[in-house]
Amino acid sequence: GEDLDLRVAEGSRIRAALAEVTRERDDLAREAERTRRERDELSEARRALERAQALAALDEERQQLLDALAARAEAAERARDEARGEAARLGEDLDLRVAEGARLSAALAEVTRERDELAREAERTRRERDELSEARRALEQVHQALATARSRIG
């Protein structure tokens, strides 16, 4: 009997130890599963963080591009405004030069009219001089004839 009691007691201790080992194994398996889940959550969080960092870098790059484009647009607008101002100034200068050209054309036309009038006047004066020269020669011939006639009469 005592052997049997010892064996039964030994079996009970073994079963108890086996139950304890089984509980510890189950606890370790649950702990391992929890650790795997935490690792997976941490991996997912790390990937999410990396995606967020990549998106932040893309946003920063996009903002830099937008800033550069805005600066170029402002520079282009300033250049356009300057070109418009220069075009307006050149237009005013052209208007002044056109007006000056018109004034000079009118003055040239007036000078041309005066020149043509003076040329006509000079032609009339030349004809009158020629007529007067002929009249003087004729008068001299008359005087000559009178002098010759007087000397015959007298």
Task: From the structure above, extract its key features.
mainly alpha; 154 residues
Question: Would you kindly provide a brief summary of this structure?
Answer:
The protein is mainly α. The protein has one helix spanning 2-153. Helices cover 99% and strands 0% of the residues.
Written account of the structure:
The chain is rod-shaped. The protein has one helix and no strands. By secondary structure, the chain is mainly alpha-helical. The mean pLDDT is 95. 99% of the residues lie in helices and 0% in strands.
List the helices and strands and how they pair.
Elements: H1 2-153
> Major sheet: size, sense and barrel closure?
none
- The count of DSSP E runs of length 2 or more, i.e. the number of strands, is 0
User: Which parts are unreliable, with pLDDT below 50 for 5 consecutive residues or more?
Assistant: none
Described by its quaternary structure, the protein is single chain
Number of H- or I-type helical stretches: 1
**Which structural class is indicated by helix and strand composition?**
mainly alpha
> What order do the helices and strands follow?
H
Binned, the helix content reads over 70%
- Terminal CA distance reads 221 Å
